[in-house]
């Protein structure tokens, strides 16, 4: 079997892909933030087809806590609970008579993202969403590896950068 080097970060399946895009609204490498101001956040929410008006504090707080849960820092349960309280979810029946979580009231965009995380945790895909360990990248990626041990968003990008840097540190200065 031939090994393939990924040069594009893997995308999560289903609704978890939206959560991944949300986590990547912070682009460490470029130094950009799609939630930098209300206008930029409204544009991102509209493009993502998420309901409601942007609440920057809530959105940024959720992004910070979810990124921490994926390996970018330490999660703070109290902050996550406060965010969840401001973005209520309601139990509803879907067309197939399955119970689902739906946004209810203010904070609908945050509630939708939280519902997708709950679903991903239930189906086992959540723990495959990780933050690239390359300090200059920190991109959220989906670990599709069989062993679930991927550490970089893509071997052909950050894996290569890391290995070249390690080689240069080991090599005598020429």
UniProtKB/TrEMBL annotation:
Residues 128-170 form the Zinc finger CGNR domain. InterPro entries: ABATE, ABATE_dom_sf, Znf_CGNR. Pfam families: ABATE, zf-CGNR. It comes from the Bacteria. This is Zinc finger CGNR domain-containing protein. It comes from Virgisporangium ochraceum.
């Amino acid at each position: 079997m031939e090994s393939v080097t990924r040069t594009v970060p893997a995308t999560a399946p289903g609704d978890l892909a939206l959560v991944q895009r949300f986590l990547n609204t912070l682009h460490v490498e470029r130094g950009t933030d799609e939630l930098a101001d209300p206008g930029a956040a409204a544009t991102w929410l509209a493009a993502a087809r998420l309901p409601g008006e942007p609440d920057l504090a809530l959105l940024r707080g959720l992004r910070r806590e979810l990124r921490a849960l994926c390996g970018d820092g330490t999660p703070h349960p109290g902050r996550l609970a406060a965010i969840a309280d401001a973005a209520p979810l309601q139990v509803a029946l879907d067309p197939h008579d399955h119970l689902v979580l739906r946004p209810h009231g203010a904070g609908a965009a945050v509630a939708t993202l939280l519902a997708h995380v709950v679903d991903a945790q239930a189906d086992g895909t959540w723990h495959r969403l990780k933050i690239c360990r390359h300090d200059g990248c920190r991109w959220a990626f989906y670990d599709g590896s069989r062993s679930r041990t991927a550490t970089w968003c893509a071997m052909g990008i950050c894996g290569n950068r890391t290995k070249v840097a390690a080689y240069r540190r080991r090599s005598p200065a020429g």
